[in-house]
Design a protein that fits this description.
- It is a single chain.
- This protein has 78 residues and is mainly beta.
- It has one domain.
- It contains 1 helix and 4 strands, in the order αββββ.
- A hairpin with a 4-residue loop joins β1 and β2.
- The chain is elongated.
- This is WYL domain-containing protein.
- It comes from Paraburkholderia hospita.
């Protein structure tokens, strides 16, 4: 689903409402990309964050962060 389709789905702007990208962040080192989109509906501002995931798909929740992990390889010899 494209970012435009997500914005239309979640914020449902009418034909007269303007959608604005208020904030855009693309941190390549941390591999984080998000936008904050705002629409003015019935006199109130509504805003949402949309996050781009590793697979290139935009979602409304942030991607899971890589956490430190330990592993163990068992090898037995007889």
């Amino acid at each position: 689903m494209s970012l435009r389709a997500l914005v239309e789905h979640w914020l449902a702007p009418g034909k007269t409402q303007r959608v604005r990208v208020v904030e855009f962040r693309n941190n390549r080192i941390r591999q984080q990309c998000y936008v904050r989109v705002e629409v003015l509906k019935t006199g109130e501002r509504m805003a949402m964050f949309f996050f781009r995931h590793q697979d290139g798909i935009w979602r409304v929740f942030p991607p899971a962060r890589a956490r430190p992990a330990m592993g163990c390889s068992l090898s037995f010899t007889r």
